[in-house]
Amino acid sequence: MTVSFPSLSWEVNMFFEKYFLKPMGHYYTLPATIVYAVLFSIAVFLVYKYILKKLNLKIDKVFMGSLVPFILLGGIMRSLEDVGFYSGYFFVSPGIYLTIFSIALTSLVVSLLLEKFVGLEYWKTMVAIGTFLCSVNMYFVLAMGIRAWNGVLMILGLVGMWSLFFWLVHMKFPKYLSFQNFLILLSHLFDGSSTFVALTFFGFGEQHVLPTFLISHTGPWIMFPLKILVVWPVLYYIDKIEDDEFRIWLKIAVLILGLALGTRDMLKVGLLGR
Fold first, then answer.
1. Does 90 fall in a domain?
2. With the C-alpha atoms ordered 215, 219, 224, 225, is the resulting torsion angle positive or negative?
3. Is residue 6 part of a domain?
């Protein structure tokens, strides 16, 4: 005897629609945040073990640097979706991560093949491809028109002040804040600065669950201590991992979450702010 639940499928569809599809590209719900965080963590592990390690690629600071243009590309393309230049699920979270991953992986494979058969170091090809794609998309951004240069300059000014402060911290206490960690922490303060300016001066809203909760009880300034008190200790403890390559890969994951979001938010302020 088979027991059926005719309403179950409808309820699942409604749940998925309410908490995942409808908010996509506009805001995050708690269930979506949890699922996306779990999927991102799993993806970080799987990509490292089953793709990067299979390519016999050395995961080091050179590899990290070669990925920076693609991280920036994700932020630029996401900002273009904000103004309607791009559209569809593959240009908003979480789809944009799959889009950039596909572009970066294809570029990496091409770069490794050129290194093998031509002798050109892979990172040079990676940087060239990533920079070209960033340049093309930045042309589109400028063609759309930056309306709030004051917002962009405020964000860059805040980043400059944080950069000076934490550079001094790095120089005084390099054991607790290495140069590499300084740069990654700065990428998150870039994101925090973009959020602060967007919410304080341009009336934008926060999309993520935890920041929304904290901001509603304090103010946009909370983004700065939040970034510092979360990202800095995370990087410090990542440094205790003995596997050098896996340690770098985890730092790349942390960098993505700061630099890509900061780039998107700053350009969104520039494109849509008044």
1. yes
2. negative
3. no
Nearest Cα to Cα of residue 100 among 124, 77, 82, 79: 77
For every one of its 274 residues, what pLDDT tens digit does the chain have, with 9 covering 90 and above? 444 445 557 677 777 777 777 777 677 888 888 888 999 999 999 999 999 999 989 999 999 999 999 999 999 999 999 999 999 999 998 899 999 999 999 999 999 999 999 999 999 999 999 999 999 999 999 999 999 999 999 999 999 999 999 999 999 999 999 999 999 999 999 999 999 999 999 988 888 887 888 898 899 999 999 999 999 999 999 999 999 999 999 999 999 999 999 999 999 999 998 7
Identify whether 246 is part of a domain.
yes
Residue among 210, 201, 205 nearest 257 (CA) = 210
Q: Which domain holds residue 86?
A: 26-272
Looking at the 3D structure of the chain, how many domains does it have?
1
Q: How buried is 28 (Cβ within 10 angstroms: 0-12 exposed, 13-18 middle, 19+ buried)?
A: buried
Maximum Cα–Cα distance for the chain, whole Å? Answer: 73
C-alpha separations of 271 from 69, 141, 189, 198 in Å = 21, 8, 21, 12
Neighbours of 273 (CB within 10 A): 19
Please report, to the nearest 10 degrees, the dihedral formed by the alpha carbons of residues 169, 172, 177, 180 taken in order.
90
Q: Please report, as a single letter, which amino acid is at residue 151.
A: G
* 20 within a domain of the structure (yes/no): no
Q: Give the C-alpha distances (Å, rounded to integers) separating 217 from 100, 122, 211, 222.
A: 35, 48, 10, 9
